[in-house]
Write a structure and sequence with these properties.
With about 140 residues, the protein is α/β, with parallel strands linked by helices. The chain has three helices and four strands.
Length: about 140
């Protein structure tokens, strides 16, 4: 993967979870949706599964957000500086990635949850991403 070039005024955010199949994929999609052209949103996993959970695709599509162009990828593929790095409940399995803002959102993995519980996690992520983007310098 070629190094990312930061455009003047563009904010870069990285969302990290273990498999990069659910939480971080949804967060990446929300950041792209809410941030528009002013935000470069990426996601990665410490042990990526290689696929996006079909539930993530389906439940984001319910909100008009298409994740089909995203892919599950490793942190090893991510380069550059970030305004924010958000880990999503993966604890020690997430290596340190430098950023101006670094937070852990202790979110449970929704992959085996029933549909309504999955939507609760999705909606929580949406609120957190929106609040994060408002706080970025």
């Amino acid at each position: 993967m070629r190094p990312s070039v930061r455009l003047r005024g563009m904010k870069r955010v990285l969302f990290v979870c273990v498999e990069n199949a659910n939480r971080s994929q949804m967060a990446e999609g929300f950041a792209r949706h809410f941030g528009g052209a002013g935000v470069e949103s990426l996601s990665a996993g410490s042990r990526p599964s290689g696929v996006i959970n079909p539930k993530a695709l389906r439940f984001m599509a319910e909100l008009g957000i298409d994740l089909s162009a995203q892919r599950s990828k490793s942190l090893d593929e991510i380069t550059g500086e970030f305004d924010a790095v958000i880990t999503m409940g993966c604890g020690d399995s997430c290596p340190w990635v430098p950023a101006r803002i670094r937070e852990d959102w202790a979110l449970g993995d929704p992959k085996h949850l029933a549909d309504e519980e999955y939507r609760v996690i999705r909606d929580d992520i949406a609120q957190r991403v929106r609040a994060l983007l408002e706080r970025l310098p």
